[in-house]
Amino acid sequence: MLFDLTGKTAVITGSSRGIGRSIAEEMAKLGAKVVVSSRKQPACEEVAEAIRADGGEAIAHPCNIGHKDQLESLVEASKSAFGKIDILVCNAASNPVFGPMRDLDDEAWDKVMNNNVKSAFWLANMVLPDMAERRDGAVIMISSIAAYFGNRKLGMYAISKAAEIQLVRNLAVEWGEHNIRVNAIAPGLVKTDFARALWEDPARREVVEKVTPLQRIGDPVDIAGLACCLAGDAGRFITGQSIIADGGRLTADPA
């Protein structure tokens, strides 16, 4: 039963669409009670209703990850509904800047770092103590392969995702003695609204597919499968890692 999440509660930020939604849906299929969260209630409720219609358990709770009080409300609502949080997936992120870093202003820097790093730090620290008391828990942060190389267009986003990977390492070291696993998933280009500017550009997409051994970009469910593995007993001896899911792109000769 390595992939059975029955009896577990999973809180997933940014789960009204894309990778987050796919993770919520797949974890629910494995028996998890799911808390769907993003900024807008109707979008969250749509996903939760779909999960319930498919026989799963889910509630919707909107949350802007940039506001600590809203994260606290998310945690409290999750525990009120399901009693505990066993799995935390920090998926929500922002990237208001597409272009060279020389054009970056302080406001954009702060927004990216706050939403992509500080919010994950806040949220993890809100749920980890209860996990420690039960001596069980899994935290998964959705990073990016952008963390592994310089980028002319996504430099700020890449910096935040590299910082998130280091946050994962530190949390894994600090909380491992309580049987808590903390890992990151670093997707390549995935067909989501968040990355639409990249995969809808035929020339850019062709370049990516050409240098990717699997010869395609990812689908959200490709990342959801890995998240489900890390959330349950299948991933019980994995912690402090950033697992790349990019179709082999980073292993390939770019020529």
Question: Would you list the SSEs in sequence order as H and E?
Answer: EHEHEHEHEHEHHHE
Strand order of the largest sheet: 3-2-1-4-5-6-7
User: How much is the radius of gyration in Å?
Assistant: 17 Å
Which whole number gives the mean pLDDT? 95
How many helix segments?
8
Q: Regarding CATH, which class? A: Alpha Beta
Total discrete domains: 1
**Number of DSSP-assigned strands:** 7
What is the percentage of strand-forming residues?
5-15%
CATH topology: Rossmann fold
The CATH homologous superfamily name equals NAD(P)-binding Rossmann-like Domain
Identify the overall geometry: globular
DSSP helix fraction: 40-55%
Span of the ends, CA to CA: 43 Å
Task: Tell me which CATH architecture applies here.
Answer: 3-Layer(aba) Sandwich
- Overall structural class, as computed from helix and strand content, comes to alpha/beta
Main beta sheet, described?
Answer: 7 strands, parallel
Low-confidence stretches: none
What does this structure look like?
This protein has 255 residues and is of the alpha/beta class. It has a single domain, classed as Rossmann fold, CATH 3.40.50.720. 45% of the residues lie in helices and 14% in strands. The protein has 8 helices and 7 strands, in the order βαβαβαβαβαβαααβ. Helix 4 runs parallel beside helix 5. The longest helix has 29 residues. The chain is globular. The chain starts with 8 loop residues before the first strand and ends in a 10-residue tail after the last strand. The model has no long low-confidence stretch (mean pLDDT 95).
